[in-house]
Amino acid sequence: MEQNQQQPASPTVQPKKRSFSGKLLRFFMWTGFVFVLLLGTAGLLGYLYRDEIKGYVVNEANKYLNTKVIVEAKDIDLTIFSSFPNASVQFSNVKALDAIDIPHRDTLFKAGKIGLEFNIWDIFSGNYRIHHIGAEDVNLDVWIDKNGRDNYHFLKESQDTTANDTAHASFALESITLKNIRVRYRDRKNKSDYRLDLHETNCSGDFSSDNFTFSADSRFHVYHLKQDSATFFSDNDGKLNLEMDVDNKSGTYSLKECALRLSDFVLNTGGKIVQGEKETKLDLSVKGDDIDLPAALSLLPAKYRENISDLESEGKFLVDATIKGIYSETQKPVVKASFSTSEGTELRKKGSEITLQDVAVKGSYSNEPGKSGIDINAFSFHSAQSRLSGNLHFRDLDNMQVEASVEGKLALDEMRKFLLNDTIELAGGTIDLGIKSSGKPKNPKSFKAEDLRHFSTTGEITFNGVAMHLENSSMKADSVNGKMIFSGNDLTVQDFGGRISGSDFSLGGTLRNLLPWLFSDDEDLVVEAVLRSKRLDLNKLLTEGGTTSTKADTTYKLEFPEHLRVALRTEVDKLSFRKFEATNVRGTLALRDKKLVADPVLFSTMDGAVSGSGMIDGARGDTLLITCDAKITRVNISKLFAQMENFGQDVIQEKHLRGIVTSEVKFASLWSAALEVNEDKIYSRADIQIDRGELIGFEPMKELSEYIKLTELEHIKFSTLKNQVEIRNRKIILPFMDIESTAMNIGMSGTHTFDDIVDYKFRIRMEEYLARKAKTAKKENDEFGEIEPDGGHRFSLYLTMKGPLSNPEISYDRKGAVQRVKEDMKQEKQNLKEILHQEFGWFKKDSTVNKADDPKKKKEEKDKKKKPESDKFIIEWDKEGKSKPEEEDDF
Description:
Blueprint: H1 20-48, H2 50-64, E1 69-70, E2 76-83, E3 86-97, E4 107-119, H3 122-125, E5 128-144, E6 169-187, E7 192-204, E8 211-227, E9 230-232, E10 236-247, E11 252-262, E12 265-275, E13 280-292, H4 293-297, H5 302-305, E14 311-314, E15 316-327, E16 334-341, E17 346-349, E18 357-366, E19 373-382, E20 387-395, E21 401-411, H6 412-419, E22 424-439, E23 456-470, E24 476-488, E25 490-500, E26 503-512, H7 514-518, E27 525-533, E28 536-537, H8 538-542, E29 564-577, E30 580-592, E31 595-605, E32 608-620, E33 623-636, H9 637-643, E34 657-672, E35 677-696, H10 699-708, E36 715-728, E37 731-740, E38 744-753, E39 757-766, H11 768-777, H12 779-784, E40 786-787, E41 795-804, E42 809-812, H13 815-824, H14 832-840, H15 858-864
Parallel strand pairs: 5-6, 27-29, 28-29
Antiparallel strand pairs: 1-3, 2-3, 3-4, 4-5, 6-7, 7-8, 8-9, 8-10, 10-11, 11-12, 12-13, 13-15, 14-17, 15-16, 16-18, 18-19, 19-20, 20-21, 21-22, 22-23, 23-24, 24-25, 25-26, 26-27, 29-30, 30-31, 31-32, 32-33, 33-34, 34-35, 35-36, 36-37, 37-38, 38-39, 39-41, 40-41, 41-42
């Protein structure tokens, strides 16, 4: 059986399909190829036409410039790829001169780099639209001179040139970037000076459009913002975020967001600004809801900020302000602001343990004409022991009227700890105060402390157990109580007393013109008061530095303040100064023109009493003139010399004398402010009577005793001695006097200098038994002695003593020499004014000191001699309160 076999049909072949990824890869390859080709072409074209492109951009920039810009051709470059997809014309080391027509123009700015960017594809079209400007490392110095001319209008006024514009480059700005820009702005006309660094600033917007939204953010550092003499925001970092709608046709800027932060100071601003050709209309609101209090205080001028730089706070400062109106050369907008602290605000100083709690301040400001002012309607705080509240108003700033009041209680030790005042070593007690003050400053634009002299003040300050001790001072005040009452410019002191450095005091009276004196250098303070004290220790009160003693080497500083006039009645039970002590001191002190006069003054001292007057003249710079006119009644002479420190000499001292002295003393001398005496300028004249006296170990007598071998001269007792003693030119002058004792009579006269150079004449009359002793002791006594024909036929010796007291030359003399001495030492009695004129040249303009030389006045002088004339030295003031002028002489 046959089988029929059929041939099988061949299979159909299908085309191979590409994968998606392959297609995508092919697409990117072609796209990349085309992009690189175009980019390379653009780069090639940019390279080939770089000079033309730079020329187009420079020409377009010059259309807008109003000043000379200096840049080297080698510092202009075209970059294609560094700012891709943009190309940029880069200018390096650019310098622009002041945009003002003056002979010598300085530099407006220097820039390390300025870049004008455009789209890289503009190279194909040949039209370059500059849409971004970048600047780096710029120093910008902007100023306005005192005439109002400025140097910064370097852009020409805008002109519409689009209709005929065939330029290959144009500005269509969309963004600006600034980095490391240092700005200095000085306005000499308005006394402004600003310095700041813009670290980085970015601005964006369609600047070529009539309507667009402008936004900016900036980080910067403020070195200072100075206005007049005040400095604000010194060395603070800042940040600005700004967004606003701009309508160039109407000149309207609508602030959508404006947040400014300087350190911890944050302000948010909103509103509109409409700018016209000659004026600008403002309608703005400014709010700060979260301002740190020290940051708010940092707005104060620098001289005030120094005292608050270390303040710390818990709490915020709130401010809400509006600015409305026209700003132009002739108009200013109305600014109104209210400010306050948040509830529960606290203040403390770094390192202090004291906190001021519930610090509250509420106030407002306005410059509205007729209603301008700064009103702090209320301020207050309290601490554990203190509280204070008050208000302050500056009304009508163009014709300022100031009103202030304060009320509270201050614990001084607590306030010292809060202030951390290192000049106050100790403080205690409390002060209650309630004071009101009002007045007008002399210049409303410049309110100064001295303007307070024109203010009227009322109120009281009460001291309760106040204590105060300043560092490096021996002055310590404690237990001070009393009340001060203000009335106008005067202060009345009532029951004011306490202790200062161991001395108690009670003071009552009036201080007239106090506020003007405190706040001015040319106003007088007049004090009319009564001072009472149980014990007044001037050693501690006048001591300068930390040591206190009654020794002669203690350092003092006696100065009288300017423009202080005092009329003080004193009642002191016990007074001490250096070695001097007195009780029951009563007198009147007057201080004027730096002259302190005590007239009269009465006191008990040294077992007797003293009355008289005195003066300390401190108007001669560092030199003090001290004079006194005193009557001494039955004073222990040994204590007198001891307490008066031997009157500045060491010839005859307290150890040499015993007895009771009654004397009238005139004394004048020059001292330093440290109370060191000038020995060349000591004058004294004393009419002395000493009863029940003794002369013990007086060196001239000791020398004489040794010479004539008569020991009785070393200790002489006498019942009464009278003489007039003078001190002048560092010399003690003793007219002839008799010292009567039971066994002998000593007559003597002569001079004794402060250098112990003596020139004495002696006459010694002895009773018979003492004469025999003298003749036996030394034969020369018999040889040179004489028998006086005075009825008693007493034996007398006449001697001289000359030379240094340590080794004097003693010799016998004759009777005639003593007679001549008595005549030579006889002097006409003069008043103190005449003596000071003759000795030191004072009162040359006073005709009274030369009346005796005028023949026409001889009869008047003769008549005057019939009447007792006071030798009292009187200080006179003229009607205006100034001392009569005297010629400057070396006294």
